[in-house]
Design goal:
Two copies of one chain form a homodimer. By secondary structure, chain A is α/β, with parallel strands linked by helices. The first copy, chain A, contains 14 helices and twelve strands. In chain A, the strands form three sheets. Chain A has a seven-stranded mixed sheet with strand order 2-8-7-6-5-3-4, with helices on both faces. A three-stranded antiparallel sheet of chain A has the order 9-12-11. Chain A has a two-stranded parallel ribbon with strand order 1-10.
């Protein structure tokens, strides 16, 4: 007697999560050492010691009703102020606490902002390949997901194709940089052009189009790559951030939205985001986590560990004959499947006990995502499997 | 450019929350000591020391990826097992981990279960007076809220009136015991009859009707009152629990759903609740809070403190001529307004710097809710204001 809507959702449920659960079962059957689970973006690098120190400090605060009590639905003033100051120090921006809403991770923040902005039938544009959950977030509010086809030569957003997808019903355009699943970082040049296309569309259609920048991977970049701050390129940008990856705490569910004061209808959006946070059942981002991250905003996971993984896996996969671009950020390789049917390829990989995710989950068939936020030793152990899989296709 | 839906929600936003924010402003103007804020169910009794000890222990666990990582969307196995065992030890039930879903408080759990069960147009029945947020939770999923009028002589649910409200579209009936805002506890007799009415309706309409029992106040009872466990009266009961009140940690956002194995379509609901948790953006209940409460399931706030508040306020209000029933649980008094228009009464109370919530917020005009989860000293200071307010009506 679950709802019809839900019944369809369960059937088409996240291939990534299904793989994660499959991995747990296979580990029991074959032994944990013999299953190479590259399915989930579950950080393998431990949280910085500062995170646990901060939790202990917060738990030691004698003012229990402050630490564990309700606060404004948008979050503690102190947390929002600290984040605004931190962003102001690092980027050419000037936020204050009224531009920040604490959220239950980036997923919570994206749902809050979609609840805030979308009426049924409103369109949300995404660039393939994109995180498959966006589809569900949009459908939660009866929005319509509009896909821009991938440019598989660079995996940068195809802005010409975007122009053709913008309509009078476009309310939100989502970007995700550094990108899941490609690892691509959008350049300042790309963002400048994107801003121009959206400004032009706003003029044409006579209403704001919000650029929702999903940035959980902001701090995970390699080779000195820079991630420009998107609000400085386009006024109507809303940033969704999460500490899941930068502090290796995805289970804690803590992040924030930036609603810059220069965005159209800033005050209304800020107020509505608080109401949305409440009525969607979050009520507020977890209080202890809010106070804890306030104490360790400058901490970072050790990105060198992911970088080492990235280099080993990229180099070896290329050596075995796989095609893929070198990622500049996040912790994924987006690899061309060795046959056009990515799901069939994923099934063949599974026979080698390699768990990887089909690109069609990301709106980009013919590719697979490999999450390298895993132990280096697992990568080493898995290399013969990747090699054998490639050789299977050479026969 | 916020959505039309949201624009209406913001306009009609929670009177309780508005009052809470008003209280913060008035405290700045008149001094904190001179504002008597009875608006919000924000516990004043500190969390038991065990809660903070548990947080510190969890933060001290060297396995960072376990403590801060993803787990099944339904929550950690250990947390769900511990809760099942705890319930089995206290009530005549036999749950296991597959009957428990960890949630972001009770509000998160209720949204998850409504996402799981409701198709647009499905009906959700509530007994007035009821927590006003239920209306928003139901409308999040395009359900239709159906109110059963209050029996103001006892504030027990009117089961005759319920029978008339059940239709072929009824999917969920919500109860809340101990009740917000009346403090009433549903007796075993009431629950037995309620179960019979629902069984009969299931037969008549040929599909399950789920009884959603919202129980954040389960452990807050007085004078030795017993709160029967609802699943033992009606098979298709789903319990929504929160530690917000029993451990004074509403900001932490931690609770659970019980989906008993004997409920129709148990497995489907359990699986769908996991998917709903993920796609609504919760992803999972906060990991550190899940592990922390697992370590202090037997802790309780000191209910004697609320009991002392209850007795003082009840006795004095009766003395001043107010009418209200003596609450057996929770931390609210539901008092008859001294004029038919409860909102006008609330405005007059505010002139005495008394912040109380109109009963119409709870679907029960002519009454007001007074949340006595406050400092005893504040109650003492506020008594002359309650007296003066009553005298204003005697002139």
């Amino acid at each position: 007697m679950i709802s019809k809507k839900m019944s369809n959702l369960v059937k088409n449920s996240s291939a990534i999560r299904a793989m994660f659960e499959e991995g747990r079962k296979m580990a029991l059957e074959f032994g944990k050492e013999n299953v190479y689970d590259y399915s989930l973006g579950n950080p393998s690098v431990p949280a910085p010691e500062g995170v646990n120190r901060a939790y202990k400090e917060v738990a030691g605060n004698p003012d229990s009703n402050y630490v564990h009590g309700y606060m404004l639905n948008q979050g503690f003033d102190e947390a929002r102020e600290a984040i605004a100051k931190d962003l102001n120090a690092r980027f050419p921006v000037a936020f204050d606490k009224n531009d920040i809403v604490m959220t239950v991770g980036a997923a919570g923040g994206m749902n809050v902002i979609m609840k805030t902005l979308l009426d049924p039938g409103d369109e949300v544009v995404v660039f393939a390949p994109y995180f498959g959950e966006y589809k569900n977030y949009v459908s939660n509010f009866d929005g319509v997901l509009v896909e821009v086809a991938p440019d598989t030569s660079t995996f940068q957003p195809d802005l010409k194709a975007l122009e053709e997808k913008l309509t009078a019903r476009t309310k939100i355009v989502i970007i995700n940089t550094p990108n899941n699943p490609t690892g691509v970082v959008y350049s300042a040049e790309t963002l400048t052009k994107l801003g121009q296309v959206l400004e032009e569309a706003q003029r044409k259609f006579g209403h704001p189009i919000y650029l929702l920048s999903d940035e959980p991977y902001r701090e995970l970049v390699y080779d000195g790559a820079e991630v420009p701050f998107v609000t400085t390129f386009y006024r109507n940008t809303i940033v969704g951030y999460s500490y899941s990856k930068s502090l290796s705490m995805p289970g804690d569910r803590i992040g924030y939205l930036v609603i810059p004061r220069e965005a159209d209808d800033h005050d209304e959006i800020f107020a509505a985001a608080g109401v949305a946070t409440r009525i969607l059942g979050f009520v507020n981002a977890p209080s202890v986590a809010q106070l804890a991250i306030t104490k360790c905003l400058n901490e970072r996971v050790d990105v060198a560990i992911y970088d080492r993984n990235r280099k080993l896996l990229y180099e070896k996969l290329k050596e075995y004959g796989y095609e893929c671009i070198m990622p500049q950020g996040a912790f994924y390789l987006f690899v061309k499947a060795l046959e056009p049917d990515d799901k069939a390829f994923v099934a063949k990989a599974k026979a080698h006990r390699l768990l990887i995710v089909p690109g069609s989950t990301f709106g980009c068939a013919g590719y697979v995502r490999i999450a390298y936020c895993v132990d280096y030793a697992m990568i080493e152990r898995s290399l013969p499997a990747f090699k054998a899989l490639a050789e299977e296709y050479k026969k």
